[in-house]
Amino acid sequence: MQAPSLFTLIKEDFSTPARKDPALKSKIELFFNYPGVIALVHYRLAHSLYVRGFRVLARMIMGFAQFMTNIDIHPAAYIGRRVFIDHGIGVVIGETAIIGDDVTIYQGVSLGGVSLAREKRHPTLENGVVIGAGAKVLGDITIGANAKIGANSVVIKNVPQGCTAVGIPARIITPKPESTFASKPSNELCLAQSSGTNALLPDVSKQAFLYLLERIEILEKQAHIADMDCHKAQESMQELKTQLDKRYREYIQALRDKDS
């Protein structure tokens, strides 16, 4: 498929806010109230120059765009089609960042690096990703298609497609229910994929409930045990204590696994 022309990309950049922002009432607002659009238009021109070897000129253009919009985009970064930078103030997109199509980025987002090596050190955002305000996505990681990153989250690990990540550091909380990709992952699959293993996160609530049930059972049986002879009572209590200790160890292990 032939790559779209520069004019086509810029035209899409101007038309995208009308589809993604209900606050837009007039096209003239795009020039005065949408710094993300202005920054993207400058980026399209600067990126076109950068890949042709006019790197200093490209950096100068983006420096001027940063002065006007307070959005810092490196001209070497790759930004796909119909990307919407909403509000935009404080957005930083690093040199080796890759952004797919139909991505939405809110104000204060940083797509940053954690390495000084001259290599791929910034994130990759696949198609349809939404990055909430103030989120920091750091390092050479991949945010899967249609995933969401919560506001002010710090993401340092891959996020599977269709999942939602929040917190510091970010953790997977739920798949996106309206995901459009063919294979819709369950919440458990999101959690397993994000940990890099096939193991699911432990159910801490279940372990705590089982432990409490075992403890209640011991209290209920104490009255019956009192009527037994001493030897049988001792054996029965020891059996219950062993079972309770096992439940307690499982509960503690579940807490450790969740925090790891």
Task: Give your account of this protein's structure.
This protein is α/β, with parallel strands linked by helices and 260 residues long. Helices cover 43% and strands 14% of the residues. The chain is built from seven helices and 15 strands. The strands form three sheets. The protein has a six-stranded mixed β-sheet with strand order 3-6-9-12-14-15. A hairpin with a 4-residue loop joins strand 14 and strand 15. Helix 3 (35-50) packs antiparallel against helix 4. It is elongated, with a radius of gyration of 27 Å.
Assign the CATH class of the largest domain: Mainly Beta
- Order of strands across the widest beta sheet? 3-6-9-12-14-15
Structural class per helix/strand content?
Answer: alpha/beta
- Rg calc: 27 Å
Helix content: 40-55%
Shape: elongated
Distance between the termini: 45 Å
Q: Helical stretch count?
A: 7
What count of structural domains? 2
Give the quaternary arrangement of the chains. single chain
Organism: Helicobacter zhangjianzhongii
Enzyme class: transferase
Keywords: Acyltransferase, Transferase
Protein name: Serine O-acetyltransferase
